[in-house]
Amino acid sequence: MNLALIRRAVRSLRVPPDYVLTDGWAIPRLGVPSLSIKKGDAVTASVAAASIVAKVVRDRAMDRYHRRFLAFGFDRHRGYGTAEHFAILARLGPTPIHRLSFKGVGHVQGVVP
Predict the structure, then answer these.
(1) What is the mean pLDDT of residues 2-23?
(2) Which pLDDT score is estimated for 113?
(3) At 61, phi and psi to the nearest 5?
(4) How far apart are the first and last CA of the chain?
(5) Could you give the maximum distance between any two Cα atoms of the chain, in Å?
């Protein structure tokens, strides 16, 4: 999780929030009061709704990435670390969208042009 990106997202909101709920991760130096809720999507409706929105946005992004990197099958596994995904990574190497810090990705050499 990139805490700096979360901080930047909160700071870039048109209407600054009075309070921020996070799903399991405390965000130090957020700049607004916040509460980290373990399993927040199961505990509070607002975190659950945000999780659904995030999944829909991610799925749409993976559909776009699938069209750009057809061999990776992002339309099927959405970038999750499935056996199929790791087999393709081993064969082709990571794309520019892969997070090299993720377990099983950073050790693969090369980048798909």
Answers:
(1) 92
(2) 41
(3) -65, -40
(4) 26
(5) 48
**92 or 100: whose pLDDT is higher?**
92
Residue with tokens 């929105």: 53
- Other beta carbons within 10 angstroms of residue 50's beta carbon come to 16
Q: Which amino acid is at 65?
A: Y
Both structure tokens of 34: 């916040």
35: which 2 tokens?
């509460």
pLDDT band at 112 (very low <50, low <70, confident <90, very high): very low
| d(C-alpha 58, C-alpha 78), whole Å | 8
Q: What is the mean pLDDT of residues 27-37?
A: 94
Average pLDDT over residues 48-53: 94
Q: Is 30:20 a contact under the CB 8 Å cutoff?
A: yes
CA–CA gap between residue 82 and residue 34 (Å, rounded): 34
Burial 16-48 (b: 16+ CB within 10 A, else e): eeeebebbeeebeebeeebeebeebbeeeeebe
